[in-house]
Amino acid sequence: MRPEKKTVHLALSSWMLALMALLSVSSVHAEKADSLKEMTIEADQFLNNGKTNVSTFSGDVVVVRGTLKVRAEKAVVTKSADEFQHVVLTAKPGAKITFRQKRDGGPDLWVEGESEKAEYDEKTEFVKFLSRAQIRYLDGNKVTQQQEGEFLSYDSKNDVFVGVNSSSGQAVSGGGRIKTTIQPRTEKQAN
What pTM was estimated for this model as a whole? Predict the structure, then answer.
């Protein structure tokens, strides 16, 4: 029998919304109202080590903030001496972390995706989705744009999106391809 899930309400600044900064590529923006919402993190276990400034959530981790919902097996939050946080989300072996969030700009616009691992550095405002990464932009249930690759990153300070064919972040000859699919604009989108 699984231990009872613990719910932890934390003010972890806006690290998870910042993690979703990658999703704002191509003038697609996460719902701004989410940044004003309470964040709830549920997990089977929670450990906070005050000496090392490391918090670990493990076992069916679910993060909810407004319309944002993230699922992972483990989330590790490390706070540096200068109070910035570094977040690492991982999936179970063979599985993926998943996320979904409403976008501003329309009543039924969403962004969702998955990867085996995600990292966010609050100080540099740099986010990485690693290994079998996929991000989809939706209008209702219709995918309007999609990125796929082993390494997808977004530098929000400099507004730079990078896709690379290996999870190391370095292009490897013969290591696969990055794929972006953009659907044609519909009449509704053109107006």
Answer: 0.75
